[in-house]
Design goal:
Chain lengths: ~325, ~550
């Protein structure tokens, strides 16, 4: 499969007087798995739909490699049906009046690429392990199977990029974890560029090469999962990704950096244990520091109400100005 | 012990209901088939077939089917663009149009049809205002005019049905087709229309049956152009001397047969093709953007539709009711309220008609409310369930058949029974006919209100010590009360302006509002007739508005 990079340049979007995307630039590298992460209403889905052409930006430019597919200045706007992308919808959007086979074959037929159609559809269904379900209708499938049909439909047209709009949110927790792995493996096997929208930070961290964290129409940070976690650029990112313990308004550290025994170059804080839960690999304590709640991971159980000393290395404290 | 008595009571009530329904519904239907098939006490199927195939009746049947098909097509053409605009584009926000487009459907067809006749006839209102339309009456007084007037009445039904079907298609189904390479035409062809097919088929069949059952428009407009259909022909056989009940019954049987086939077809389609379209999570709804040009075209289309379906007939009716001397036509100084004043002061027949209609409507609505509520409450708890379903099915039967057929059956049956039960030729027979025709509405409204009463609500009342009658009074009845109220007013409204029943079986010299209007229109003062029509529509509209207010208030109170 071919793959492309996607450039969003100074894209903005508003509905009436409500601005949902402030001028933003984002370069999605080819063959990368990029996640747009943020709470609901942050504009991540709008951004994805603008790449697909389902929403039209108010200004800016979008390029697939060197081809301009949208430009407000040059008055270019390639419609969705000409952009040649794969898309996996949140509600799967399988056509209820078509069999699994016809659902998957749709994109090939629409583009009149019907040579070896049967074989191509079968291959795609095989890739998602649904080769025996070709004659079923969507309502005869489970949620996870519907999800895989939606995925097969996206890969069969050999798109240069696949867009995912919260595709796992309709599934239950266990299935979600399984599909997470399946999608990641398949996408990397295909070598295709993938853009994935989610509000679930665990999904974002575990699947992506790069994460763009969005808040209220702004891209707060665009970096690898490791960087986003260990070096958050804004307070919002620090709070939204992972647990953060705030020393004051401008300084925080991640729970795993706290020690219960004295170490060099560290500050000491006294906290009160409020509540504790056993997670199997650790005890997680909710503790009180001034008016903040800190998470701490400890090996042994501690008494609720007890006061303990916590040591935080200076170089692990992240500051915001 | 107590519950045993309760159970027995329930079966006794059910038995009484069964007898009532048998006499009210099954017997008249039986009377039709018996009259059609037996002649002088002997089975005579050949005779019945002869009636149906004799050339004027064969022509009439062809007319009816042709008319039905054309009305379906024209209604579809009017309704489809509107349904699209009001479901998939920003027009969907203007909820007011949902009400506006119900007006033509709520207007009694015979009144709208009279409006059109007054507007289009030779030297009618159109030609008085625009003399250059001289000759347009030739176009209107033809099957084309009949089809247009009937379609302008029935399109709102198709509009509502298609609109709701379109609203049920999540945008993502179209968007996904778009992303996977389908252009606008391809999306309509491969996604949109296939998903609408079953709903559309159901709507088309309903409109077809409705058109075949309709009496008002064919009786006013159709008769003028010599276009006979089932309803007018059955009416003629049953009322014009020499009366031929046998012929009327034979044609009615054919009409029943056609309706049954249509209902079976409808049932087949809705069972075969129902997709579970409404998916909950993540379904978003996105309006199609309209270009400036498309927006202008859309507005023009909406306004033109409203103009023809509402403004023209109402303009004609209202202005005619205000014209002093018909010979002078629409002219300044030729307007008067005298016809309205006359109706309430000097015109005893007019006042009589209003009083008769009021009595009939109140009586029919009250009996329906009581009987319907009892039926719903009793059959909910009856075991085996099939017994309840059967009872309900029989009580709903009249809503699946043309009213003229039911009324003919009642006419024949009670005529034959006259020596035992002299109900025929009294107002009582009209009340009985209305109860038969409109009981299904009460059953439907009360059933849907009762649907919200889950078993656990009644169980809860029992756990807290309530006896069955107490539960009925304190739990069940308060919850179904809005349904009963709605049913009462709806029955009141349709009974108040009902035409076909009154014109078939009202006793001689007894006029109701609808027959008064028709009589004045045909051989009296058209203006007086139209004044009565305005009063009739205004009165029923106000009742309906009050009803909505009352029901809303109840909902808020809950």
């Amino acid at each position: 499969m071919s793959h492309i990079n996607i450039k969003l340049l100074d894209i903005e979007k508003s509905y009436g007087s409500k601005q949902v995307i402030f001028p933003s630039t984002l370069i999605i590298e080819d063959s990368s798995f990029t996640t747009l992460l943020g709470p609901s209403g942050c504009g991540k889905t709008t951004l994805l739909r603008m790449i697909a052409g389902l929403e039209t930006p108010n200004a800016g430019e979008i390029y697939f490699d060197d081809t301009c597919i949208y430009s407000s200045k040059q008055n270019i706007n390639i419609p969705p049906e000409k952009r040649g992308l794969g898309f996996v919808f949140q509600d799967f959007a399988l056509w209820p009046h078509m069999t699994v086979f016809e659902n998957v074959a749709f994109g090939l037929r629409a583009a009149k690429r019907t040579d070896q159609l049967e074989q191509k559809v079968k291959d795609a269904l095989k890739a998602v392990r649904l080769e025996n379900f070709a004659d079923r209708y969507p309502h005869q499938l489970s949620g996870g199977q519907q999800q895989r049909v939606a995925f097969a439909r996206a890969i069969v047209i050999k798109p240069s990029c696949i867009l995912f709009d919260e595709p796992l949110s309709a599934l239950d927790a266990q299935l979600r974890e399984q599909m997470r792995a399946e999608i990641t493996v398949l996408v990397s096997e295909l070598g295709v560029t993938a853009v994935f929208v989610t509000h679930d930070q665990v999904e974002a961290m575990s699947m992506s090469d790069k994460i763009a964290v969005l808040s209220e129409g702004h891209i707060e940070q665009y970096a690898s999962p490791e960087e986003v976690y260990s070096d958050p650029q804004t307070e919002f990112v620090a709070k939204f990704v992972g647990n953060s313990n705030w020393i004051d308004d401008k300084h925080m550290f991640r729970p795993e950096h706290a020690q219960l025994t004295p170490i060099d170059n560290a500050h000491k804080y006294q906290v009160e244990v409020l509540f504790q839960q056993f997670l199997g690999y650790t005890f997680q304590s909710h503790t009180k520091f001034q008016d903040q709640v800190w998470f701490l991971n400890t090996k042994q159980k501690m008494d609720v109400g007890s006061h303990i000393d916590v040591y935080v290395p200076d170089n692990k404290v992240i500051s915001f100005s | 012990m107590l519950s045993r008595i309760q159970d027995n009571m329930r079966y006794i009530v059910l038995a009484i209901i069964a007898v009532i329904l048998f006499v009210l519904i099954i017997c008249p239907l039986g009377a039709i088939f018996a009259t059609a098939l037996f002649q002088d006490g002997k089975l005579n199927i050949a005779g019945a077939i002869d009636v149906v195939v004799q050339s004027e009746n064969a022509q009439m049947i062809a007319n009816s089917l042709f008319l039905g098909a054309l009305v379906v097509i024209v209604s579809t053409l009017i309704a489809t663009p509107l349904a699209y605009l009001f479901s998939r584009t920003r027009f969907a926000k203007y909820k007011i149009f949902d009400i506006i487009f119900m007006i033509p459907f709520m207007t009694p067809p015979f009144i709208a049809s009279m409006g059109w006749i007054l507007f289009m006839q030779k030297r009618g209102l159109l030609q008085q205002v625009f003399p250059m339309f001289k000759g347009s009456e030739d176009f209107f007084f033809s099957i084309a005019g009949l089809v247009i007037v009937m379609s302008l009445h029935s399109f709102p039904f198709m509009f509502t049905l298609l609109k709701n079907a379109m609203l049920n298609i999540p945008s993502s189904l179209e968007e996904s087709a778009q992303v996977f390479g389908a252009g606008f035409g391809q999306r309509l062809r491969k996604i949109f229309f296939p998903l609408l097919t079953s709903n559309y088929a159901i709507g088309a069949l309903l409109i077809f049956v409705k058109t075949l059952s309709e009496y008002g428009t064919p009786a006013t407009l159709g008769v003028r152009i010599g276009f006979d259909v089932f309803t007018t022909q059955i009416h003629r056989y049953a009322t014009v001397a020499p009366v031929h009940f046998g012929n009327a019954a034979a044609l009615s049987s054919v009409l029943i047969g056609i309706c049954v086939v249509m209902w079976l077809l409808q049932n087949y389609i809705s069972n075969r093709k129902s997709y579970n379209l409404v998916s909950g999570k993540g379904s978003r709804f996105k309006f199609e953007e309209l270009s400036k040009l498309a927006l202008v075209v859309a507005w023009i289309y909406i306004i033109v539709t409203i103009f023809f379906s509402i403004i023209v007939p109402f303009f004609a009716i209202i202005s005619t009711s205000l014209i002093n001397l018909r010979g002078l036509g629409l002219a300044l100084g030729n307007f008067t309220f005298q016809h309205y004043i006359d109706l309430f002061t000097s015109n005893s027949k007019g006042i009589g008609a209003i009083i008769n209609s009021l009595i009939l409507a109140v009586a029919a609505a009250s009996i329906c409310a009581v009987l319907g509520t009892i039926i719903v409450v009793v059959i909910r708890k009856i075991r085996p369930k099939a017994l309840g379903t059967l009872t309900e099915g029989v009580s709903l039967l009249p809503s699946f058949l043309p009213s003229i057929v039911m009324v003919l059956g009642i006419m024949i049956f009670w005529n034959a029974l006259y020596d035992v039960a002299p109900l025929y030729n009294t107002l009582g027979i009209l009340v009985l006919a209305y109860v038969v025709l409109y009981l299904p509405y009460t059953i439907q409204y009360v059933t849907s209100a009762a649907g919200q009463i889950s078993d656990s609500l009644q169980d809860a009342a029992r756990v807290f010590g309530a006896k069955p009658l107490y539960i009925l009074r304190r739990v069940v009845f308060p919850l179904i009360k809005p349904g009963i109220l709605t049913a009462w007013i709806m029955t009141f409204i349709i009974s108040f302006r009902e035409l076909v029943t009154a014109s078939l079986i009202a006793p001689p010299n007894v006029l109701v509002v609808s027959t008064f209007i028709v009589r004045e229109f045909e051989q009296g003062s058209v203006s007086v007739g139209m004044a009565m029509a305005v009063i009739c529509v205004a009165f029923t509209t106000i009742s309906l508005t009050l009803l909505n207010k009352a029901v809303d208030k109840q909902k808020v109170a809950e």
